Amino acid sequence: MTAETSQTLDRGLRVLKLLADTDHGLTVTELSNKLGVNRTVVYRLLATLEQHALVRRDVGGRARVGLGVLRLGRQVHPLVREAALPALRSLAEDIGATAHLTLVDGTEALAVAVVEPTWTDYHVAYRTGFRHPLDRGAAGRAILAARAATGSVEDPGYTLTHGELEAGASGAAAPLVGVTGVEGSVGVVMLADSVPERVGPRVVDAAKEVAEALR
């Protein structure tokens, strides 16, 4: 800590990060151990965060991220979209297909940025705001593959699909890897019976570019 920073705010932000990294919540004792502070400090931090709906505690006393975080999160999409656009434009022009950035929103995949190629005679219309289940379409399946690979030394690579979201359309997508707090994928969708061989590796490269821009 330096003279210009707040120790209390730093601890509060660390609490939120710890809670965001777990699906089952944390107890006061667990937070105390992870933060290296006594339980009284943790109680005060949680009480303050609860007042702002950033944390909630269940009947068992475990603390979890609160719904107030969603209000803050709505402002994240424009920032993520802006960071991703250069890589998406390059991908769309290179492949000649509609490129997109998709993020997890609850149990669904949500397209937050879409770029169409400028030089093709036709391409798939894929709009920002389009939603679909995570287990349908290349974008969602790539995200699920990354989840399954968590903790593994294997690279999740890319995912290919055909006709799952739109008849006659094929998709390729690769997950964003190594971006704290962002779960998503970069992909393309095209009118084709199958995805050309070079598209998968190119999508992986684009996902890495976007991930780097977001770090």
Please, could you describe this protein's structure?
- It is a single chain.
- This protein has 215 residues and is an alpha+beta fold.
- The chain folds into two domains: 7-71, Winged helix-like DNA-binding domain superfamily/Winged helix DNA-binding domain (Arc Repressor Mutant, subunit A, Orthogonal Bundle); 75-214, Beta-Lactamase (2-Layer Sandwich), CATH 3.30.450.
- Helices cover 41% and strands 20% of the residues.
- It has helices at 7-20, 28-35, 39-51, 68-73, 76-95, 138-148, 199-214; strands at residues 55-57, 63-65, 98-105, 108-115, 131-133, 159-162, 169-175, 184-191.
- The strands form two sheets. The chain has a six-stranded antiparallel β-sheet with strand order 5-4-3-8-7-6.
- The radius of gyration is 20 Å and the shape is elongated.
For the residues shown, what is the average pLDDT?
91
Outline = elongated
Helicity, as a percent range: 40-55%
User: What class, by secondary structure content?
Assistant: alpha+beta
Q: N-to-C terminal Cα separation, in Å?
A: 22 Å
CATH superfamily assignment of the largest domain?
GAF domain
Spatial sequence of strands, sheet with the most strands: 5-4-3-8-7-6
Radius of gyration: 20 Å
CATH architecture level-2 label of the largest domain: 2-Layer Sandwich
List low-pLDDT spans.
none
Largest sheet: 6 strands, antiparallel
Highest CATH level, the class of the largest domain: Alpha Beta
Total beta strands:
8
Query: Could you say how many structural domains there are in total?
Result: 2
Strand content: 15-25%
CATH topology of the largest domain: Beta-Lactamase
- What letter string, H or E per element, gives the SSE order? HHHEEHHEEEHEEEH
- Per DSSP, the total helix count is 7
